[in-house]
């Protein structure tokens, strides 16, 4: 049991106007709470929002299907248990405060501060995230890979992902939710500074973005798909090379990381996750194109409802869509660019925006970190 400061204050105010019997009952309640066996070992009286604020989407409303959209983003979890996990990960004894620092269509992010002076960010996926176990596993592996590969080699302006200090891809843990805990990067989103900076201050932010993308797009992998830790993949995929045959990159990374099925949302969104398909990894671009077209044909058979109000195609379009997809399968080898540099498998940030770059709060907008690597893929250079 965690006693909230607001609860204590309101209860104290009530008993000050009461009699001896009320004050005695209050002392018993406080003693019982503080000695309860359910009190987390690593957390006491942290200041945090109420559970509904933590669990619910609180950043706006939807014009259509508001209740359904809210339900897809309602993320309950055991707050005390997750707080204890974070305390252990941060090497602290007590959490001082929680703050919701961000939420988007797919995740919520919280800032936790501790008695040791440490701070971490916890990210919780919303129920709308399909295939959550592979998605979390791939995101953590991608962030860790980028840090290991470039932390000692890139320029000081190059933003790297924050360091992951604890994670779980399943809900089979005391917190009852998948989570990623990273070191907190003190700074602000570039979005908050962009309207107010110009010249060299803006230029250094752009240089950071270019430097990061240049690093990522310059090193080819062996297949198309997404990055994982080797132990999270079947043995057959663990035995495949990580890099292209002519790569001279380090063997240590080749052993630790491998390419597995794509976590691109286009293969998993809505009912698509229920459609059986070859989601990679793919050895070449024609194979990926054929798999995508075959996947869409199965989706039409199994999950696409042309009468739904938000489907742009009409039922009368179905025959033409099927014909076009079959043609795509047949001509896949013919529509691949001949320039090998355009189709080499490379890693890229899945959706780099001004909200995904953390910069210094004042002065030159030096990029300190790049966040939100969920659903990152190793895709053809021409598509990144």
Mean pLDDT: 86
* Spatial strand sequence of the major β-sheet: 1-2-3-5-4
Helix-strand makeup class: alpha+beta
**Major pleated sheet:** 5 strands, antiparallel
Q: What is the string of SSEs from the N terminus onward?
A: HHHHHEEEHEEEHHEHHEHHHEEEE
Strand content: 15-25%
Radius of gyration: 25 Å
Number of strands: 12
- Specify the helix fraction band: 25-40%
Globular, elongated, flat, extended or rod-shaped: what is the shape? Answer: globular
Q: What low-confidence regions span 5 or more consecutive residues with pLDDT below 50?
A: 1-43
* SS field, number of helical segments: 13
**Termini separation (Å)?**
48 Å
Provide keyphrases for this structure.
single chain; 384 residues; alpha+beta; 5-stranded antiparallel beta sheet; 3-stranded antiparallel beta sheet; 13 helices; disordered N terminus
Task: Describe the secondary-structure layout.
Blueprint (H helix, E strand, L loop, with lengths): L4 H12 L3 H15 L16 H5 L10 H7 L6 H12 L4 E9 L3 E8 L4 E7 L6 H19 L13 E5 L10 E5 L4 E2 H4 L6 H18 L8 E4 L5 H4 L12 H6 E4 L24 H18 L15 H14 L8 H4 L1 E4 L8 E3 L7 E4 L6 E4 L4
Antiparallel strand pairs: 1-2, 2-3, 3-5, 4-5, 6-10, 7-8, 9-12, 10-11
Descriptive report:
This protein is of the alpha+beta class and about 375 residues long. Helix 11 runs antiparallel to helix 12. It is globular, with a radius of gyration of 25 Å. The N terminus is likely disordered.
């Amino acid at each position: 049991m965690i006693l909230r400061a607001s609860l204590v204050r309101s209860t104290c105010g009530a008993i000050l106007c009461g009699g001896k019997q009320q004050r005695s009952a209050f002392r018993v309640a406080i003693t019982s709470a503080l000695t309860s066996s359910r009190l987390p070992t690593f957390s006491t009286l942290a200041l945090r929002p109420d559970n509904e604020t933590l669990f619910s989407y609180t950043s706006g409303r939807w014009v259509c299907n508001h209740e359904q959209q809210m339900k897809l983003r309602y993320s309950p979890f055991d707050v005390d248990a997750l707080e204890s996990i974070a305390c252990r990960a941060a090497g602290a004894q007590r959490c001082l405060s929680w703050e919701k620092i961000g939420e988007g269509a797919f995740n919520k992010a919280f800032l936790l501060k501790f008695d040791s002076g440490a701070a971490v960010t916890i990210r919780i996926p919303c129920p709308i995230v399909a295939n959550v176990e592979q998605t979390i596993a791939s995101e953590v592996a991608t962030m860790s890979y980028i840090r290991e590969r470039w932390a000692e080699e890139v320029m000081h302006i190059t933003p790297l992902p924050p360091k992951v200090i604890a994670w779980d891809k399943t809900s089979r843990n005391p917190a009852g939710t998948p989570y990623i805990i990273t070191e907190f990067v003190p700074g602000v989103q570039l979005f908050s500074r962009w309207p107010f900076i110009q010249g060299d201050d803006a230029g250094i932010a752009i240089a950071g973005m270019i430097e990061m993308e240049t690093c990522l797009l310059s090193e080819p992998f062996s297949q198309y798909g997404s990055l994982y830790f080797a132990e999270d993949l079947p043995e057959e995929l663990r035995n495949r090379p990580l890099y292209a045959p002519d790569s001279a990159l380090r063997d240590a990374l080749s052993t630790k990381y491998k390419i597995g099925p794509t976590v691109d949302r286009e293969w998993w969104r809505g009912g698509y996750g229920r459609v059986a398909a070859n989601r990679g990894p793919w050895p070449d671009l024609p194979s990926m194109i054929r798999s995508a077209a075959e996947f869409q044909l199965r989706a039409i058979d199994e999950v696409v409802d042309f009468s739904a109000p938000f489907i742009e195609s009409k039922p009368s379009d179905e025959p033409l869509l099927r014909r076009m997809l079959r043609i795509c399968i047949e001509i896949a080898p013919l529509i691949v660019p001949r320039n090998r540099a355009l189709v080499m498998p490379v890693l890229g940030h899945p959706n780099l925006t001004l909200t995904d770059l953390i910069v210094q709060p004042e002065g030159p907008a030096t990029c300190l970190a790049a966040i939100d690597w969920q659903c990152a893929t190793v895709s053809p250079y021409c598509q990144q």
